[in-house]
Write a structure and sequence with these properties.
Elements (H helix, E strand, L loop, with lengths): L4 H34 L5 E5 L9 H15 L3 E4 L5 H11 L4 E6 L13 E5 L2 H10 L1 E6 L4 H15 L8 E4 L1 H18 L10 E4 L2 H11 L9 H8 L2
Parallel strand pairs: 1-2, 1-5, 2-3, 3-4, 5-6, 6-7
Helix pairs in contact: 2-3, 2-7
């Protein structure tokens, strides 16, 4: 029996390799579709927040207003395409004049595409989806949320900090919600030397929808909102 085991293991390994090889084409297809659909929507703002936020919650209502203002100012709004804050972002964008974009992810629960999307993409792979959020964003607006929201926030901060993405405004909305997190960054990470004090300057904190828009325009005052040639080269290496 032992003499047949290597052959059995080899066949199993070959089947696994074949599956992985075909998976590469699926990943490539997700990137190609994303690049083709999102290349034409700039400038854009990516908005993140909890999928569990209900329609009558103040966070939901504030997100609708922020997205509406951004859309009226000419920014396409990109969300994760699901319920909660994502739905509010797409809903507000449709009330304005600019495209409402949903970058959806297939999950066992929580994620059902909302109905407020002018452009809708569907992904199986989180890492391919993340590239779409970063690559075409002129700003990140981060509403209160859970692990997924923190993941996207950490992603953009890491990319900007390490020079793998151009610097864009990263705006946290909700002083009461985010203050403890920002205190922890300063009192634990900065104090421990794991990030620099200047890294905290990557983050803007505000509460009012109009102020979110002003923060973005203030950031780009005196510079183009479109990536420079050098920044475009950086974005190619995301």
């Amino acid at each position: 029996m032992s003499s047949h085991q290597p052959s059995t293991r080899t066949r199993a390994a070959e089947r696994a390799l074949n599956r992985e090889s075909w998976r590469i084409f699926q990943i490539m297809a997700e990137f190609v579709e994303g690049f083709e659909k999102l290349e034409l929507i700039h400038p854009a703002v990516s908005i993140f927040g909890s999928a569990r936020t209900l329609e009558n919650h103040p966070w939901y209502e504030k997100t609708v207003e922020i997205s509406r203002l951004l859309s009226e100012c000419g920014f396409a709004v990109v969300s994760g395409g699901g319920p909660g804050i994502m739905e509010a972002a797409n809903r507000g964008a449709q009330q304005g004049k600019s495209p409402s974009v949903g970058v959806n992810i297939q999950l066992p629960h929580e994620q059902e595409p909302n109905r407020y999307q002018d452009i809708s993409l569907n992904f199986k792979h989180f890492f391919a989806r993340k590239v779409m959020f970063v690559k075409y964003a002129a700003a990140y607006v981060v509403m209160p949320g859970g692990f997924g929201t923190l993941d996207e926030l950490a992603e953009i901060l890491t990319l900007v900090q390490t020079g793998k993405s151009r610097r864009i405004p990263v705006i946290l909305v909700g002083t009461e919600f985010w203050r403890g997190f920002l205190d922890w960054l300063e009192q634990t990470l900065v104090a421990g030397g794991t990030i620099d004090p200047e890294d905290l300057h990557l983050i803007h904190l505000c509460d009012e929808p109009q102020r979110v828009v002003e923060e973005i325009f203030d950031f780009y005052e005196g510079r183009s909102i479109e990536p420079s040639s050098e920044e475009q080269m950086i974005q190619l290496e995301l």
